[in-house]
Amino acid sequence: MGTAFSSEQQNINSTKGTKTRRRSIPDRLSSELLKKNFTEIENYSLKVCFDNICCVNEDGIAHIDEESFVKYLNFADDIGVGQLLFRSFTYLANYPS
């Protein structure tokens, strides 16, 4: 969840010249986990929340960085809770199951 992005790929069939979309394995796994563990409204809420706080790096990959995460939480900067929560968030995002 710390780094999420759409990794759909377009392949061109050389004989027919048609484009097909193929999703990568991590994208399919994350979709299956969302369907298995969350309701449709929870899934929608997660996507909206991610869209509100994500950043896009120079490679075009959307991710959540610490600055935008802490700003979204709107905690006071001097207490340091935002940084602790971000580290916990990224740690837990590496273990989806």
Automatic annotation (TrEMBL):
Region Disordered: which residues?
Answer: 1-24
- Domain of life, per lineage: Eukaryota
Organism annotation = Dentiscutata erythropus
Protein name (record): 24991_t:CDS:1
Q: Bias regions of kind Polar residues — which residues? A: 1-17
